[in-house]
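Archive transcription. Copying these from loose printouts into the bound notebook so they stop getting lost. Printout 1 of 2:
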Amino acid sequence: MTAPKQGRRTLTFPELFQLPATVDLTTAADAMGISANTAYKLIKREEFPCTVLRPGWHYRVPTMALMKALEVENLPIHLDDVDSGADFAARA
């Protein structure tokens, strides 16, 4: 993979794991290290590497589909979350 062109930003892993359920096309393109213009071209050719939704006039990309396309299929597990879950289960 080539380095991103100057001026274009690629998302980091921590940023990827904090994305909402769907993202706009520019954010998805940033995650993939491509320009939004290239993303639009790939969609037009039906070659975008994951599911793209079009509710109304805007494109939305499901974050889980984006993560799968990037071969990042597992979210990180934080010890604090495990402890909170165990505490919750103990109270139930």
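Printout 2 of 2:
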Amino acid sequence: MLTSKQRAYLRSMANGIDTIFHVGKSGITPELTESFNTALEAREIVKANVLDNNLLDVREVATTIAERTRADVVQVIGNRFVLYRKSKKPVIELPK
């Protein structure tokens, strides 16, 4: 569970990163979930975009993927969302 200070720090970091995932009409597949797992382990913070042809709500997609990957939802804004999960070899040092 992230504190508000940690969440604000991660939101500021997310401004500078590119969107690496696009969730389309096929929705949340096991392959997509595995890709999120791999990316979270390598980067710790991931930004994704939910395309207009998806039938699910952006917040619904973010929380579902976060539950399946054991990550925290940092931010949901517009059609984009940001997830964070501490990896085995931490790259990001969060404020206390």
